[in-house]
TrEMBL record:
Pathway: Cell wall biogenesis; peptidoglycan biosynthesis. GO terms for molecular function: lipid-linked peptidoglycan transporter activity; peptidoglycan glycosyltransferase activity. It comes from the Bacteria. This is Probable peptidoglycan glycosyltransferase FtsW. The keyword Glycosyltransferase applies. It is a multi-pass membrane protein. It is an enzyme of class 2 (transferase).
Amino acid sequence: MAKKPTYDSTITLTVAALVVIGIVMVFSSSYANALVNFKDGYFYLKKGLMWGALGTFAMYFCARFPYYKWERYANLLFFFSIGLLILVLTPVGTEINGSQRWITIAGQTIMPSEIAKFCAIIYVSTTITRKKDKIKSFVYGVLPYLLIIGMYFSLIYFQPDLSTAFVLGVVIMSIVFVGGMKLTHFIGLALTGLGAISSLIAYIVIKGDSYKARRITAFLDPWADPSASGFQVIQSLLALGSGGLFGRGLGRSVQKHFYLPEPQNDFIFAIIGEELGFIGGTVVLLLFLILIWRGVRIAMNAPDLQSCLLATGIIALITIQVIINIAVATSSMPVTGMPLPFISSGGNALVVFMALTGILLNISKHINPDRR
């Protein structure tokens, strides 16, 4: 008798654990900040619980919604995401800390670039499936996706948000590669991309008068300017170092008290390391590794090309963001704003990641149980 198809319970439990850790750690790391800035120490906790509830609903809906039916809405989602990215650059957009990346709706800020990640994965996966015979052609298969990357990259870059633009470009190319592009095309584009990035970094360093240049020099030697460009990196390393093996204890971080800016967002892994120690940080890393491993298995055993590409895009996005966030917190790369999936405070980003997880769960239900 054939086994009844079921969702991947490992992914469900892993994501649930990450979300719970995220809500707890966001509350712990943000209490002082919220008390001073919003006169309510529970501000980020309430926000996290609200977005967590919306994310749970989004994950449940996407897990129940057949993955192959997203094809019907792929074009609509693409134009919707482009429209939002254009809208955020108009006076409708909300500027925070010198960046215009948000739109405020009913008192809540949303980031169109996060929604664009969801829409881009569905659109690219669907369109490659539609024209899978042409993907080996550079002109008809690869070039259109380079134009799509250029469109997304330009709109997000001018917010400005170089890291998100870069991540989205890499995710799209990952889908195209798995979709069947020639290895020679991939190698050529990869080398061209590395050359372009190297040239951009060299230009920024030589010019030397932008915040991007200061971030690069701070990465090379944070102690050269400890009170300005190197401040975040130093405080993050102090937090991780002072946590030791077992940590100071939940809620006992020192760096979150206005030493480490916005500890509930991009540097939350440093607070995890300080309060929960090396063991706590390792547990978080293991949870991400389990999630990525299960996602890769789903992509490899997917029932068709569309589901394989969807799973590839979702796991590529999660993997890249985890690597960048932790690399920044450990001073393994220059500082850039990249939230830690499921954990960092970030409203609609949590909803998007949980919705994508729902799609992954739906795909897992269509895999032959004997191949799990």
